[in-house]
Fold this sequence. Notes:
By secondary structure, the chain is of the alpha/beta class. It contains 11 helices and 12 strands. α2 runs antiparallel to α5 (147-160), α4 packs across α5 (147-160) and α5 runs antiparallel to α6. The radius of gyration is 20 Å and the shape is globular. 38% of the residues are buried.
Amino acid sequence: MEHETCREIGTAETLAVLRSLEDAEILIHRSPDGDCIGSGYALYHLLKRFGIRSRVCCADPIPSLYDSITAGVTFEDFPAKMYISADVADRKLFGELPQKDAEIALCIDHHVSNTHYAKLLHWDHNASAACEVLYELMRAHDLPLTREIALCLYIGMATDTGCFQFSNAGAGTFAAVAEIKRQYPDLPYARLNRELFVMKAPGRIALDASLMQNIRISEDGRVALIFASADLLRSLKVTEEDTDGMANLPMQVRGVEVGITVKQKPDGSYRISMRGGDDANVSVIAQHFGGGGHVKASGCSIADGDPEDVCGMLMDVASAMLRGQTEA
Ligand SMILES: [Mn+2]
C-alpha cells in the first residue's frame, strides 16, 4: 500500500531523520538475505553510535550463514516507538511480522519496484544493494566506517551482486568495496566469499545435481528451466535457507539468456525466479505473470496447476518474449 504522502529524501535529510529516531525497530524482509541483514545491522551499529536504541526485526530467523554479522550483537528489550526499514521494496515483504502494518518513518532501499509505502524514502535504484545506498550516505557525511559496519556493508554488496559478478555491480560498488578493503585489509574476505558463494550443504549438492540432470532447455538454447518439486525438496531435507542462490543454476548453461527456477511449495503453489543474461529483461517476463523485480533478476508466483503445464507455459512465454526483446 502506498503511503499517501511518501516523500523521497536525500542523504542530509535521511541522516537528520536517523539522528532523530528514538527506540527504533529496523524492519527487514522475510527470507532474509545478506543485503537486508547487512543493511539492518549496519543501521543498528550506526544508530548505536548516535546513542539511539534500536533492534533489527525479521519475520524469519537470521540464517547461521550470517553469524559473522550477528555475533556479539544482543538487542535490548524495549517497547518500540518508531519503525524504519532497509532493503524492503514492499510492505508485503515484511511477512508475518507483528509490526507489518506499522507506520514506517523511513525506508532505505535500492529496488526500482519500491512501492513508496514509507513516510520518507531514501533510495537509489541504480545502487547494487541497500548496503551501497547506506555506504554512500555515510561517505557523503563523513560518518566513520567502523569495522562492524564495514563487514555488514561488504556482505550486503557481495550478496546482491552475486559476489560482484552481476551487471548491477557498478563503479560505485567497486569504489565502496575498495575503500572498505583499504580501511580493513584484514576482514576475512576470501573466507566469507567461499562460505557465502561457494560452499553448499550436502543436501544442496544432491539437489543441484538432480535439478541439473533434469534441466529443460528450449530448442534455440536460450531459455533454461529447472523444477524443484515439493517432494524432491522434502526427500533431500533441503531447508529454505539451503535453496539460496538456486535461481542462478540455469544460467550456468552456455548460451542461456533466460534462466527460470520453479520451486513448488508444500501447498502446491509455485515460486518462480528468473535470471537474465546480457540481452534479456526478465522483469518484463515476470510482470507478465503478475510478478516483478530487477531487469536481470525477477520473480513471480503461480497459485496452482499441474507441474508439467506450469513449466511448459513458462518456457513458451519466456521464449516468445525473449524473441520479442532481442529481435532488432
Ligand atoms: Mn538488496
